[in-house]
Amino acid sequence: MSETITATSEAAPAAPTSPAASTAPVQHLSMQQALNRALDEILAASPKTVVFGEDCGQLGGVFRITDGLQAKHGEGRVFDTPLAESGILGMSVGLAMAGFHPIPEVQFDGFAYPAINQIVCQIARMNYRSRGTLPMRITLRVPSFGGIRAPEHHGESLEALFAHVPGLKVVSPSDPHDAYHLLKYAVSRPDPVIFMEPKSRYWQKGPVTFRPETPDAGTADAGEPPEAGLTGARVVREGRHVTLVAWGAMVARCLQVAELAAEDGIDVEVLDLRWLKPIDAPALVASAGKTRRAVVVHEAPLTSGLGAEVAQLITQGCFDTLKAPVERVTGFDVPYPSGDLEDEYLPNIDRILFGIQRVLEYRRG
Amino acid sequence: MDTTPTLVADDAAPLTHEQLRELYSLMAAVRQLDTAAVAWQRQGIIPGYAPELGQEAAQVGSGYAVDKSRDFVFPTYREMGVARAMGLDMVGYMSTHKATWHGGMYNPLESRFAPIQAVVAGSVLHAVGWAHGQTLSGKPAGELGAAMTYFGDGASSQGDVHEAMNFAAVMKAPVVFFIQNNGWAISVPTERQVAGGSVAARAAGYGIPAVQVDGNDVAAVFEATRNAFAHARSGNGPVVIEAMTYRRGPHSTADDPGRYRTLDEERTDAGEDPLERHRARLLADGTADEAFFAAAHQAAQDEEEAIRAGIEALGPRPGSEMFDLVFQETTPALESQAAAWREESEHV
User: Fold this and answer.
1) The pTM is what?
2) Is the pLDDT of residue A264 over 80?
3) CA A157 to CA B200: how far, in whole Å?
4) What's the ipTM?
5) pLDDT of A204-216, one tens digit each?
6) Other beta carbons less than 10 A from residue B196's beta carbon
7) Residue A112 distance to chain B (closest CA, Å)
8) Chain B positions with Cβ closer than 8 Å to A
9) Within 10 Å of residue A343's Cβ, how many Cβ atoms?
10) Contact A254, A244 (CB under 8 A)
11) Distance between CA B329 and CA A148 in Å, rounded?
């Protein structure tokens, strides 16, 4: 692509997706199975946790994330609600006030919109409003993003909206290992967390490493978080020439792009942001400061998207060392299109490669 | 077809003379404080207030039925009388109107009174969630606490109220939906707000027992609420109470009712003054005498003065709270913003 880049024959380092010690058991699970297992263990670990939403009980959820949990933990712990998202989230507030740890689900991302009042005006503010006496220990699971050719309102990217709201924290796992551990970690924390599950990755399998030596805590009552590393971003592929920043389903796509770019001698680093709020700014600065070029990739529309926040954090931390302005490869400023147009909308391999090319070939003046 | 279930009646004894007198004293205290709060706003002591003139019976009668050892109340922004009837710290309550903090200065877990709400139907769902928590707690029927959620004819138009009634009925959650129908949602009268003219009538659609009560009769309100609590606490599910009353004053200290109703209409439509009505009853049956009323009003005045002194003594809150109370676990971005704020504030 650019003559300023020295071709390298070095193989890309293995993605550190299995961080635990070699003695830890590893299982190959889909993200759906990993999330199901995490919820099972969370319910077993803390009697105060409750899982509910539309079709969460007997059906096990439309994506089967809660499969079998009602039969195992009872109808009081895992239950179906009427079809009303504001009701589900408003009820979560009351349950949290009563000392429970609600883990509600909205069935699809677009159905979070009817509950926005409860999420923004209530869940996000109750701790503040009550001067810290009514913490909202709520983990809202939202099957998120596109890529499955679903009908309208079934493929939205709400991360910028959620991340903009004071009082909310937002996280999105990109593989089964992180899905399992991040969900357990999110539930263990005392603040409300929006847990955005990349639904197009539900059925992809990957290694999940468990930690049998320390009972993997489902709640804060069980002590320290299982992995300190869960609080920030992670480098899923190390590289020297350019940093791709992504989250959710786009992480896997960026890893594909990195493989292809390597054939052209471009050594791509892929940073999985994971936490969309709080954003791990030091990790962004470390990676982009090293590679001196960055491209943010997300499914959400461009304008006022989280890519702008990421670009600003990188610019602020690496202004002197950057070789090019931070580029963005994103969805477009259009309503999420119907299934036939999904491939045109989502950042694809070519568009991401063009983004890389833009930062590699950038010339000042 | 009659779809409304029957309310399980409470077998508690009728109100004692002492309780009837106490209800008057509470209403007198509420009237005094409410009137004073409007004056405080005019004097610049507080920036704003939502008066409840005329709703003393609805609020005191219902709040008096709350068992603070097990129930929980979910108010909006016009439930000062409920707070007073429940014995809350009224300096803490009024501090919200002083704008020292949103939602109250007290600990809701101790006061059993959830934060004050401007999004008026939002907390109706919280009551359902809290009440379902009572069910999930495994307590036997009879030992359950109940949630009581307050809202008005205006809030009843919001979808959350319908979702809440449906959820509560499906889950048999111990909730008392207490509607104060004061005739006005700011400037819009009930007939242009509530289809059918009654919120209570909607309960039938959810299979919830409902009662409509004279909201200017404090004893009637108390007894209706006590019955509703007995029904809910016994595991029979939710109850709807609609107290028919009248907002005699403006919606808030920023409102001008003269733009949407005349003084003549106010006089005609307001109905009986709840204090006068209860006073007449107490005098008629010999429960109280003039000396009692004089003492009650003196006590109300003394209380109001103490509360005003407490409000005026409240200093400004430390600005750092703005950052400290957003999360239980703060974020690096907030820490950084707080640090910048501290540094830049030194030059102010």
Assistant:
1) 0.93
2) yes
3) 40
4) 0.95
5) 999 999 876 544 4
6) 9
7) 14
8) 72, 74, 101-105, 107-109, 114-115, 119, 122-134, 136-137, 147, 159-160, 163-164, 166-167, 170, 321, 325-329, 331-333
9) 12
10) yes
11) 35
